[in-house]
Structures are given as C-alpha cells and as structure tokens.
Amino acid sequence: MDQPTRNLAEFAVSLDYGALTQSAIDSTVRHVVDTIGCAIGALDAKPAAIARSIAALSGGTPGSTVIGLEQPTTPEYAAFANAVMVRYLDFNDTGIGGHPSDMIPATLAVAEPRLSSGSDVLLATFIQYEVVAALRRGGFHRLRKRHVDQVQSVIGSAIGAGRILGLNTTEMANAISLALTPNIPLRVVRTGVISDWKGCATAHGAMMGVFAARLAREGLTGPPEPFNGIAGLCELVGLPAFEVGGVGRAYNGLSAIEATGFKPYPSEYSSQGPIALLLDLRAQLTVDRVTAITIALHWGGWHEIGGGQGDHVEKWHPTTRESADHSLPYLAAVALIDGAVSLESFSEQRIGDPQIRALMQKIRVVEDPGLTRAHAGELPSWPSRVEIVLDDGRRLERSCARPKGHPLNPLMDQELESKFIELCEPRMAMSRIRQLLDTLWSLAALDDIRSLTHQLRTI
Known about the structure:
Blueprint: H1 3-14, H2 22-41, H3 46-55, E1 64-66, E2 69-73, H4 75-88, H5 104-111, H6 118-138, H7 151-165, H8 169-180, H9 201-217, H10 233-237, H11 272-281, E3 290-297, H12 299-305, H13 312-316, H14 321-324, H15 328-338, H16 348-351, H17 354-360, E4 363-367, H18 369-375, E5 384-390, E6 395-400, H19 413-424, H20 430-441, H21 450-456
C-alpha cells in the first residue's frame, strides 16, 4: 500500500481512548452538540425531506436512526440523510480541511446498530478530525485549485466508521481505498449558481465512507495505492505524490478538533468576521447614507465568497439560499439592513429584496495580500477588514484578526447551548431540548449510543 494509506490506517487502528486529553474529549463533545443542533435546525429543508423519503424506503434491523424518522434505516442512508441536515444551513463547524463535522453522521450511523458507547463515538470522531488535518498537511488543500472538492470527507467517514467496526490495519487500508477510488467529487458544486447538491456533497461522502468500511469488513479489497499509484489521485490531478506524516500532531498545542472553529452565523466561514464588523459599525450609520463598502479578505475567502473564481455575477445576484450564504455582498447587505444574519435571512423574499439588491451593488470584495499572509499557517486566522464610505465623506473602518468562534476566540459552552436552543425551538418543547442537551453533554459516559439516537427519531 502507498504511504498515505498505510499511515492513516495505522493511526486510525492504533489510537486508544486513554490517549485523549480531557480537553480533547470535551472539545469533541462540543462538536457533537453543535452538529446535532445544526441537523435539527435543517429538518424542514427540501434536501433533508428528500433524503428522509429515500431512507424511509429501506428498513434496517436493528438499523440506524435518521433524525425525524421513526423507523430505522440502513447505516448508509442514515449517514447520508443526517449529514444532509448537518450541512444544509452552512452553520456547522469549520476547521483544517473543510467542515469535519459532516463526517460525524457516518460514525453515529455505524455505532448505533453495534450498540457502541459514547466514548467509542468520541474516539472515532476525534480520529476523523485528525485524519482530515493530516490530509490537508499532506497537500489536500491543493486539490481545490485542481477542481476537486472535499475528498477528505469520504476518507474520514470511512475511517471513523471503520474504527467503530473494529477494522484491522489491512481492512482499514482497504476501506480508505474503497472510499477514495470511486468517489472524486468535482468542485463545480461550489461555483456559479449553487444548487441543492452543495449541502449534499459531503453527505454523499459520509454515505460512501460507511459503505466502504462495511465492504472492507467483509473482506473486499481496493487498489493498494489509491493516492500515489499509477493512475491514482495524484496522477489524475497532476500533483506530486502525497506524503501524509505526523498524523495526530498538534496545531499550536491543539488537537485537530480543538483547532476547529464554530460559527455564530449561518454562512460561509470567511464571512463570520465581516458580518460581525458590519454589525458593530451599523450603530454609527444609516444605510441610505452609505455610498461604498470595501471588504478585504484573505485569498481563500475572496475566492470562495467574493467573486474570485470567475463567479462575480452569481455572487452579486444570488437566486437561491445556497448561493446567498456563499455571497459576501448579500451577507454584508443583510447585516447592515436587518441588523442580523440568521436563518430567516435566506427566504426567497429576503434574497430578492430590492433594498438589499441595491446596497449589494455598492459593495466591493478584494483580496488583500497582507491578510492572505496573516491567514496562512497551520492554524489559519481568517482575518478581514471593512471600510464604509458615507455620503458626507466619512470613512468607518474595522478589522478582525480572528472572528468569534475561532479556536483562539471560541464560543463558550453557554453560547453553543444558546445556538442549539435557537435551532431546536421551532420543533421541540424546551423540556425535550433540555433532555437532549443533557444527554449530549454526558456523551462520554453513555454505555449505549442509542440513549442519544433514539431521542432523535421523534423530533
């Protein structure tokens, strides 16, 4: 097998729960809390309803839970449906290599029918985050420029599921290969007009990761060199061979999951700082006096939400929720006009509002090389700067080195609870929300993960 496959498989199989620090365990619990809240908040979304309808057609014995679906289904369909919900609102965590909590539904889907403990789930989740971080260090961040997107999700999902299934090193290596070889997603999903699939792409990775791990457990083999072999991933995208080393190595003393941030706003992560800056400046102006707004970002943010990938028209004229939450001009205009960016900001009425559209045309998004340099490094900082020009010539400026929710500027437990409650209140009584939160915060002590998953069936 090639070096990345071997290193990832050996790490995933060898790490024990006892090696996790209490801080890492606590952080993993926090990410599961946030993930479940984001999923519940998206229950009524169109992609979520479609995913549940497909899952409902296939039963499972004992089966895996889909949130909001009373009957169990197969682990693959549960992983897909729940990950669609986790991802839909663009409210879940962001870290080194994308949105790693997209993989948590894969672990839960396999853990439930095996009657795994809460600590089993936490260990598998911790491993998933470390794997994604190691892949990024090994060069996976370069795939974005080769029009390939989020491959790490299917690999991490396979590894998390494989750890729950008790795979040995050879089986884990096969799970990695069976996940990677048939599942190379195109970055077109995140360019131009953003479709429903944006919130489903990593869910597909979760589903196929589960499938790969289950196949490997039954003895199915995959190509031994999926990364660096002849006609493997690197040759496909024209990159030099990957070297995945130091799996589990800390980032500034933080594990990968501790180095992953949370979102206070339901939008792409590079927008978190600018939104907060604009909300802070809003008290000093009236919107009708604004003549120009310039928002400076690091290269990745400009490329993703500021029109930097040849999609300027779509960013300044979004037509769908999926486009709007990845449009910094839209998010900035909503923040100034409404005084908030919330789940209600993405209704058809708000997206098409003439006042918002008019203000968007006064907004310019630029890449600042200084911010790009500041953002670089093992623990990105996500810096931003905002300048507003008023009709009397005044200029209002604010800058942000690390937005709220960044690992070094974290959301506290109470803030995470408030976010969770906000996401759940439209569907659940407060007593049930409290019961679910109590179970989630006690995850490390659960003998049987069904104490959590069965609560999710009747939401």
